[in-house]
């Protein structure tokens, strides 16, 4: 059985734990750097990327997470977590972890649409996945090694680059666990 960590500093942590457990895997809420040694893959949840970053600095997570990635361990960023993973953020000089070769724009679906749901076709996951978008970012552009998995109204909302998976929406907020299952499959493949 694989152990999936959920970065537990801020945001929709419990919902991811619930989704991982519904898929039959073990979930660990990661609040301390030492716990990274114990997990096979990590989900960085949605929430508020600036707040999460502040806590990541406070608890010394930046370098250990880069190290975790350099060991080839899978990482999945959802919404704010996607922003945390990105190499470039529109309007900012520096990224957070800067791991995934994508450029993201924050809060890019407009104020009048702070949150909404949309049915998405996600490559390798589902043709009819309900994506819950909450002040969501989108992926403006991707590097050559990045596979676009889903778009919505012409904007990229899910992508994968080898060990890295990211999406604009919150896959943990419904009872459809296929996106979580896809990540768990990535983790199992890597472990084997
Ligand atoms: N708008 C948030 C940010 O920029 C992301 C929102 C979310 O994770 N639901 O960090």
TrEMBL record:
Pathway entry: Cofactor biosynthesis; pyridoxal 5'-phosphate biosynthesis
GO cellular component labels: cytosol; glutaminase complex
A molecular function GO annotation: pyridoxal 5'-phosphate synthase (glutamine hydrolysing) activity
EC number: 4.3.3.6, 3.5.1.2
One matching Pfam family: SNO
Catalysed reactions, as listed in the record: L-glutamine + H2O = L-glutamate + NH4(+); aldehydo-D-ribose 5-phosphate + D-glyceraldehyde 3-phosphate + L-glutamine = pyridoxal 5'-phosphate + L-glutamate + phosphate + 3 H2O + H(+)
InterPro entries, per database record: Class_I_gatase-like (IPR029062), PdxT/SNO (IPR002161), PdxT/SNO_CS (IPR021196)
UniProt GO BP: L-glutamine catabolic process; pyridoxal phosphate biosynthetic process; pyridoxine metabolic process
Superkingdom to which the source organism belongs: Bacteria
Active-site residues, record numbering mapped to chain: 79 (nucleophile), 170 (charge relay system), 172 (charge relay system)
Ligand binding (L-glutamine): 47-49, 106, 134-135
Function: Catalyzes the hydrolysis of glutamine to glutamate and ammonia as part of the biosynthesis of pyridoxal 5'-phosphate. The resulting ammonia molecule is channeled to the active site of PdxS.
Family, as annotated: Belongs to the glutaminase PdxT/SNO family.
Quaternary data: In the presence of PdxS, forms a dodecamer of heterodimers. Only shows activity in the heterodimer.
Descriptive protein name: Pyridoxal 5'-phosphate synthase subunit PdxT
Lineage summary: Bacteria, Bacillati, Bacillota, Bacilli, Bacillales
